[in-house]
Amino acid sequence: MLPLIGSKEGIGHIAFCFVDASDIALVPDPAYPVYAISTKLAGGEPYYMPLTEQHHFLPDLDSIPQDVVKRSKVLWLNYPNNPTGAVAELDFFNRVVEFARKNNLAVCHDGPYTEVAFDGYKPVSFLQASGAHEVGIEFHSLSKSYNMTGWRIGMAVGNACMIDALKRVKSNLDSGIPQAIQYAAIEALNGPQEAIAAHNNTYQRRRDLVVDVLNDIGCQAQAPKASLYVWAKVPPGYTSLEFSASLLDQVGVLVIPGTGYGSNGEGYVRLSLTLPDAALVKALSKLSAWQDSRNRFKSKH
Fold it and tell me: Which of 11, 34, 201, 211 has the fewest Cβ atoms nearer than 10 Å?
C-alpha cells in the first residue's frame, strides 16, 4: 500500500514506471482523460478500447489486435465508471486477470467510486478477483467516500513490485501528504461510517430526479447502480457538443459533452450528482423549459 496526494497524482505518475517510448497503454474510451494523457507524457501511445452500450460499457479485450497487445504494457480500467456510470462484476475482473497474465500486462484499476452505490448494490473491487494482486494495483481516494475532494489524499494497493516502482518515482517528485490532511483522513476512516450511506441516499434521490427529467426532454438515460454520474444519449438531431451548447445558450445549464472523454463519447452527455439540491432543482427546471421551448418551435414549423 502506498499513500498518495490524491489518487489522480498516482494515476498520473504510474505511466513513468512502466511506459517507455513506443510502448502502448490500453485505455478505455470514453474515460477519465488522465489515463491517456499520462501515457503520452511518458512517451507512450494510448490504444483506445471502445466502451459501448451494446457491451455494457465494458472493453472487449478479445477484439484488441494481437500486434497491439504485444506492444502493450498497461491496461487501464475504472469501475464504477466515469463517465458512463457502468459497473463491472467479479467475473469480468477474473477475465481481466487471465488476460493480463497471458499478455504480461500491468493492470491499473481506478476505483474511487466503490462506496458510492445505490439501491442496495455493492460494487466489487478489482483486488477481489483471483490473482489480482499478482498482476495489478487499485487506486482509491477519500474524495468521493468521505467528501474530502480538494484535501488530496488517496492510496494505491496491490502488486508489491508495482507499488515499489510508483514509490520510487514519487520519492523523487514529492515529500508526502501534509500531516493535517493525514490526521483528517485517520478520523474519517476510524470514525462513524453512517455518513457514507447518508451521502448515497442524497445522491440516489438526485439521480432519480435527473434521470426522470432527462427522459422527459428526449434524452435516453438509465439510472446508474453506482458512481456520481448520469450518462445520457442526446436527443436525435444533435451531436454531443451541439446539444451541450444549446442547453448552455438557451437556458444556462452546463452539461459535459461525451466527446470530452473520448471519441466514443459522441452521442452522449455526462451530468454530475454533486450539485447541491437547490441548484439541481433549478437546473432541472431549466432543462424542462428547454424542452417546452423546443416543442413550441416544432409546433410553429
Answer: 201
Place of cell 474511487: 112
* Helices of type H across the chain: 7-18, 34-41, 66-71, 90-103, 132-135, 142-145, 160-171, 179-190, 194-216, 240-251, 277-300
Kindly tell me the sign of the dihedral angle through the C-alpha atoms of 199, 200, 201, 206. positive
In DSSP terms, which residues pair with 107 in a beta bridge?
Answer: 75, 136
Pick the CATH number of 2-190 from 3.40.50.620, 1.10.1740.10, 3.40.640.10, 3.40.50.2000: 3.40.640.10
**Contact indicator for 126, 77 with CB cutoff of 8 Å:** yes
Considering the chain, tell me which residue range(s) the CATH 3.40.640.10 domain(s) occupy: 2-190
Give me the CATH topology for the region 194-300.
Aspartate Aminotransferase, domain 1 (3.90.1150)
235-271 pLDDT per residue, tens: 999 999 999 999 999 999 999 999 999 999 999 999 9
Number of Cβ within a 10 Å radius of residue 190: 8
What whole-number distance in Å separates Cα of residue 150 and Cα of residue 164?
26
Distance CA 185, CA 146 (A): 9
pLDDT digits (tens, 9 = 90+) for 66-124: 999 999 999 999 999 999 999 999 999 999 999 999 999 999 999 999 999 999 999 99
By three-state DSSP, how is residue 170 classified? helix
**Cut 0.90: pTM above it:** yes
